[in-house]
Amino acid sequence: MLSSLLPSGTSTPNLGRHSPSPTNASEPQSTAQPGPVEHTPPTPHRRKRIVVAMTGATGSILGIKVLTALRRLNIETHLVISKWAEATIKYETDYHPRNVRALSDYVHGINDMAAPVSSGSFKADGMIVVPCSMKALAAINSGFCEDLISRTADVMLKERRKLVLVARETPLSDIHLRNMLSVSQAGAIIFPPVPAFYIKASSVDELVDQSVGRMLDLFDLDTADFARWEGWKKET
């Protein structure tokens, strides 16, 4: 009877060292019925999961470095690259788009609106659009989900998840500024990749690493690739 009260796969608990034998009818049988044993299934462990989107704005190396850092940190990545991002990658870097895709765990087509990342039921820990064009910014701000990048960003906002937009444009028009303010009020974080001259970088790579490190700080991830500010250093 006890086994019928237990969840499937749960063994009958030990009732004591002197539990009556069911074959000895002369011994009195206990009439107490133990309550059902609570069985809490173990919580499956999941790697932290970040969606990375790359648009056609200049600064494709930022997206590449983000993917590289996330791979090193063992973060599950889902990549979406626009058509113009592919063109910019070829023009600005020595990478080919297929090499960039190889840096991610999963790659989704820009027009694949049935991709897992397009649904709020898909558990993601955040999204970064790097670099983020003004076209993508406008689409995200207006909720105009014309492709998988703007749709996934829309999902992040509605599900109250972390959304970082690495906006690449200068100077900024009133339209750009209004879009930035509006999407920031909706919950996104605007991150212009402004170089930190105080690190006294000796190369562009050092400036890029500092920006990427600060971007991933927003997801509580430490790349350990740049020097953090610790106050003025006295000359020796």
Automatic annotation (TrEMBL):
This is Flavin prenyltransferase PAD1, mitochondrial. Oligomer. It holds the Pfam family Flavoprotein. Residues 20-33 have a biased composition (Polar residues). It is found in: Mitochondrion. Dimethylallyl phosphate binds at residues 198, 214. Its EC number is 2.5.1.129. FMN binds at residues 56-58, 82, 168. It is an enzyme of class 2 (transferase). Residues 1-15 have a biased composition (Low complexity). The keyword Mitochondrion applies. Belongs to the UbiX/PAD1 family. Keywords: Flavoprotein, FMN, Mitochondrion, Prenyltransferase, Transferase. One of its GO terms (molecular function) is flavin prenyltransferase activity. Residues 48-217 form the Flavoprotein domain. It catalyses: dimethylallyl phosphate + FMNH2 = prenylated FMNH2 + phosphate. Residues 1-45 are annotated as: Disordered. Flavin prenyltransferase that catalyzes the synthesis of the prenylated FMN cofactor (prenyl-FMN) for the ferulic acid decarboxylase FDC1. The prenyltransferase is metal-independent and links a dimethylallyl moiety from dimethylallyl monophosphate (DMAP) to the flavin N5 and C6 atoms of FMN. One of its GO terms (cellular component) is mitochondrion. InterPro entries: Flavin_trans-like (IPR036551), Flavoprotein (IPR003382), UbiX-like (IPR004507).
